[in-house]
Amino acid sequence: MKKKTNIDRDPINGEEIASRMNFNQLLSNFPGYIKLPFYKTGWFITTVASVAVLVTVTAIVFSNNNTKDSEVSASPPVTTESIITYDDDTPCITPPIKKLDIQSDSYYCENEIGGEFAHSSGTLIKVPKNTFVDKNGNSLNGEIELRYREFHNPIDFILSGIPMTYDSAGTEYTFESAGMIEIYGYQNGKPVEIADGKPIRIEMNPKGGSSRFNLYELDTSSGDWGYKGKTELVSEDMDESIGAPSVTSKTSKDDVISNIMKTKEATEVTKTELAIAKKEVIEHKNTQPSKPKTSVNKDRQFDLDVDPKEFPELKNYSSLTFEVDKNDRNFSADVYEIEWEDISLSEKEKGKSYYLTLFKGSAKRTFSVFPIFEGTDYKRAMEEFNQNFSTYEIELDKRITNEEKIKEKLKKQMLLYETALALEKKKQVEFEANQAAYYAKAKDAHKNSIAINVVARAFNVTRFGTWNCDSPVSKPSGAKVNASFADNVGVNLGLHNVNLIEKNKNAVFTYSESQFNNFKFNPKEENTIVAFTANNEIAIIKPIYFKDMPKEKKHQFEMEIIDVKSMTVKNVKEKLNL
Amino acid sequence: MQGKSIYHQSQNQLLSENNIVEAAKKDPKQFEALYTKYYEQIFRYIHQRMDDKEMAFDITSQVFLKAMINLPKYKYKGVPFSSWLYRIAMSEVYQSFKDKKSTRTVNVDTSNVEDIIEEVEEDNTEEMRQALIEVIGDLPEVELQIIEMRYFEKRSYREIGDILGMTENNAKVKAYRIVEKLKKSFSVRKSYNYEKEN
Predict the structure, then answer these.
(1) How far away is chain B from the Cα of A84, in angstroms, using its nearest Cα?
(2) Nearest C-alpha of chain A: how many angstroms from B160?
(3) Which of these, A365, A364, A349, lies nearest to A311 by C-alpha position?
(4) 0.80 cut: is pTM over it?
(5) What is the rounded distance in angstroms from the CA atom of residue A524 to the CA atom of residue A427?
(6) Touching check for B36 and chain A: CB below 8 Å?
(7) What is the ipTM of this complex?
(8) Per residue in A237-248, pLDDT tens?
(9) Angle of helix B81-98 relative to helix B157-164, nearest 10 degrees?
């Protein structure tokens, strides 16, 4: 992203900002807000009613008729009605091209009955009865519409605009996904919620059945993913005598690994906290008040009147004597023989030492000086010092205690980390033994024609939103270039970010413009780069490009531009062939 | 920063603000109180990051409109409503950069630069101020945001954390790491200049 820097720009005053506030205009743009027609507005009704009453009264007077007065029927009170529509758009989900966003499928479910729905991908959506409630937690009757979509590959992730990075203690990881879903429920167009303890179970294609994938839920307002535990691997019915598939033991091993990650991250954060605390102690030590000094050498002194506004720390002393530091070699007795024209005092260390400069014409002499106190001034300075020193010590104690506390916390965390490592080692041995036993039994089972197969990856959805089966991975490494991106005639595309896809990883590594100068990829992998231009075209670098790419520090990628105006998601996938 | 952020609120103030939010979910007219309360600070947040004043006003309106539309999804988390508004504002601002409707601008107030110089323990010279402004402009976006919020907009770590969706401690740690990075960058610059001069 190109940036411009302004220095000391003129501020805008609050009045100007306030003058631009216009809530009525905002309200009129609100899609659910129905602006009342003029004949329903309060002023109109009041006016018409008053006129009608007046006309009626006049008619009675003039006709002198005893017939029943015609009643003026006022309209019932009109309230501003708003229909709040559920907008799936969220601050963190921004599909790069809206028309190529992955579309939802709708499934209809009677809440009192529940149901099981098969998505086109083979996923089963299992809804228990009475799952849906309104926003106040009241159970609902009748038909509920489930809007459901899935994202399985890098193109789905890119086109959906769903963030695929995970921040863990300040380190950014990319998600390698084993499948992501988005599910929402509605009744008569209004959003509904999932009742506590009635989760919807999703059973999706296991994608190889690896147990390293965790479950995460997207917080749509912040764009962060929250860790929700493990996904469950479901195997086909097996002979119980074979023993439990290794899902259980794998899961517990993964929990240990997750614990190692957590404890390691915690220690890293605490180490930084400790560095901050240490710095705060050092900073405070630098502010230690110095004890007032008395005269040492009368041959190195100057009497000065000091402006209390400039040096508030000296305000209690109207006339002060400063003595030149004994180590200052600039000083010699001849300074007293010269008639100086001007003199200045500047701070060296607040309240402790100063620079005194004498001027004459273009000549000047600077000395390091400190104030000296005698008699009552000394007494007063000592009182001030004692007071300041006491405050200083209290604060210092506070900071040192804080440092000690953090040290203690770090010690405990290090212990937890080491315990987690030891446990992992133990679990690894157990896991390998368990796995060997499992496969040995499985081999026997296979001989007896019993199929062993992980058939689904399952998890429970406890809230509507976006759920992801992921494993955090680091960015690729191996080669690094300072990259720029142009079309095939060399014109820079001005991209804000590019997406790197490795064929064997179900992940999208996104590089923002500020990271182009540190564009890393693994040359041993089959790489593709996909980006979107400002004209809503897709720009792509195919794997073959990397094969012929020269080894250089700076590289301009010349991208193929694909016009997607008339394309569907399917066309795009075919064209990109990933 | 002018129009200082109304962030620190007591528990009672937060609950009373949430009552307004709940009322606004039922009747959009009630949103006016929140609009009036936060309009200036959201505008300043947006304008701080771009040059075009009119665009900043347009985006501010867009932020409040989006907030009203998405209000049914808002869930009270014990922090001021403004942190949700800021997140929407952040998203809208970056969308405007993406759509090339505006240019990312870093607005530096020289008096704030002095605070950073103090943090990185460098001499407060004109040369150092210029160098720092240059280095800040080159920071990655995430780091720049933290520097802007902490040093230019004088926000607390708690508020920064709420806006960026991280813990207060994490915001503090990140800011500390950025300052360390700046220190390192200056020490490299110094040794380079030293070698050049000798």
Answers:
(1) 7
(2) 13
(3) A349
(4) no
(5) 33
(6) yes
(7) 0.85
(8) 443 333 333 333
(9) 60
